[in-house]
Write a structure and sequence with these properties.
It is a single chain. With about 400 residues, this protein is α/β, with parallel strands linked by helices. The chain folds into 2 domains: about 20-50 and about 290-390, Aspartate Aminotransferase, domain 1 (Alpha-Beta Complex), CATH 3.90.1150; about 55-290, Type I PLP-dependent aspartate aminotransferase-like (Major domain) (Aspartate Aminotransferase, domain 2, 3-Layer(aba) Sandwich), CATH 3.40.640. About 40% of the residues lie in helices and about 15% in strands. The protein contains 14 helices and 14 strands. The chain has helices spanning about 10-20, 60-70, 85-100, 110-120, 135-145, 155-165, 190-200, 220-225, 255-265, 265-270, 275-290, 295-310, 330-345, 375-390; strands spanning about 30, 35-40, 40-45, 105, 125-130, 150, 175-180, 205, 235-240, 250, 325-330, 345, 350, 360-365. The strands form 3 sheets. A 7-stranded mixed β-sheet has the order 4-10-9-8-7-5-6, with helices on both faces. Strands 1-2-3-12 form a 4-stranded mixed β-sheet. β8 (about 205), α8 (about 220-225) and β9 (about 235-240) form a beta-alpha-beta unit. α2 (about 60-70) packs antiparallel against α11, α3 packs parallel to α11 and α13 crosses α14 (about 375-390). The longest helix has 20 residues, at about 295-310. The radius of gyration is 22 Å and the shape is globular.
Length: about 400
């Protein structure tokens, strides 16, 4: 009998189990709603990126169904061959107008947008200067570009400046930060980094995935929130979180977008979005512009839940957004916290190393605009009970 060449993976899985870090995939049964059935249990869902509840919004459903009826279920090709449909161009036009940039290109995911853009724009002779907590897709894109990678301490703009000042003046440099950091929920040092990029001649890039639909006027993101329009060369956003559908996009100059049409590998080698997805995203932009009060509800819920966790004595880190971590420290303890919350009716996933530092394991909570006050109060009551049991309260 042939020996299994992948048998070493089983021992790695056994190690995760021994450390209390092994997780199985939770299964959502039915719609992505604030109160949902997960693994046959009714729970308050605090793990979804569906910030505005748009995954089930009637306008998005109707537009998607109409697109299927009129245009079919798939595009049949990559964008650069036969897969660019009129509805893709309409989505990109609407996004560029929304983001106040010359042009936009849509990618299959936010991950692909980040990794594909960094890898396309830079080469081995260039330098990436990156916040230490930037998203994995930025890190992977930088590695794929073969550029030299320099990392500055989280949000330390002065450290970023010192790194850049030590580099040759004529060398191409990309300065990059998340707009909202996905694990801690804090905002990037966007204005200060924009000033440094202008001072030292860098390309300025912001990954606004968790800010899209959340920050700025009508959810235009941190560039709008900080009023740095025209100072960020490359803006990355997502269509998979607050927008409620699927995909990512890059917004910037027409030259940048046309270059990515020719050099961004995820764009060149991935089939384009199904018409229904593009249609739903266009409908989501309509909702953002027509119903800004939905974002107000998101922030009302955020303030209520965040203040409730802090009043109970939980360490919620530096969060400034609807992402609020409850930091347990030890990885196994964070997983035990997540499991006990689930048993009591609250779904908040545990997150440990390597996603976060070994001593910063946590459960990550995300509230949405569609949570009711009763649901959030129930979750706070469960957190109080379980946090007390496990000795996590400060």
């Amino acid at each position: 009998m042939r020996r299994d060449p992948l048998s070493f993976l089983a021992s790695d899985l056994d190690s995760l189990k021994a450390q209390g870090l092994y997780r199985h995939l939770r299964v959502l049964e039915g719609e992505q709603k604030p109160k949902a059935s997960v693994d046959h249990r009714q729970v308050v869902n605090l793990s979804s990126n569906n910030y505005l509840g748009l995954t089930t919004h009637p306008a998005l459903r109707e537009r998607a169904i109409e697109a299927v009826r009129q245009l079919g279920v798939g595009s049949g090709s990559v964008r650069s061959i036969a897969g660019t449909m009129a509805i893709h161009l309409e989505l990109e036009r609407r996004l560029a107008e929304f983001k106040k940039t010359e042009a936009v290109v849509v990618f299959q995911s936010g991950f692909a947008a980040n990794a594909g853009t960094v890898a396309a724009v830079l080469s081995k002779d260039d330098v990436v200067v990156s916040d230490e907590l930037n998203h994995a897709s930025i890190i992977d894109g930088a590695r794929l570009s073969r550029a030299t990678i320099k990392v500055f301490p989280h949000k330390d703009a002065d450290a970023a400046r010192r790194i850049l000042q030590e580099l040759p003046a004529g060398q191409r440099k990309l300065l990059i930060t998340d707009g909202v950091f996905s694990m801690d929920g804090d905002l990037g040092a966007v204005p200060a980094l924009c000033a440094i990029a202008e001072e030292l001649g860098c390309i300025m890039m912001v990954d606004d995935a968790h800010a899209s639909g959340v920050f700025g006027r009508n959810g235009r993101g941190t560039i709008d929130h900080f009023d740095v329009h025209g100072r960020v060369d490359v803006q990355v956003g997502t269509l998979s979180k607050a927008i409620g559908a699927l995909g990512g996009y890059v917004a910037g100059s027409r030259t940048l977008i046309e270059f990515l049409h020719h050099r961004a590998r995820p764009f060149l080698f991935s089939t384009s979005h199904p018409p229904a997805v593009a249609a739903a995203c266009i409908a989501a932009l309509d909702v953002l512009e027509r119903e800004p009060e939905i974002i107000d509800r998101l922030w009302e819920n955020t303030r209520f839940f965040k203040s409730g966790l802090r009043a109970l004595g939980f360490n919620t880190g530096p969060s400034e957004s609807p992402i609020t971590p409850v930091i347990a420290g030890d990885g196994a303890l964070a997983m035990k916290l997540s499991d006990r919350l689930f048993q009591e009716g609250v779904f908040a996933q545990g997150i440990a190393f390597p996603t976060v530092a070994r001593d910063k394991a946590r459960v990550r909570t995300i509230v949405t605009a569609t949570h009711t006050r009763d649901e959030l109060q129930f979750a706070l009551d469960v957190f109080a009970k379980v946090g007390g049991e496990l000795g996590i309260l400060l």
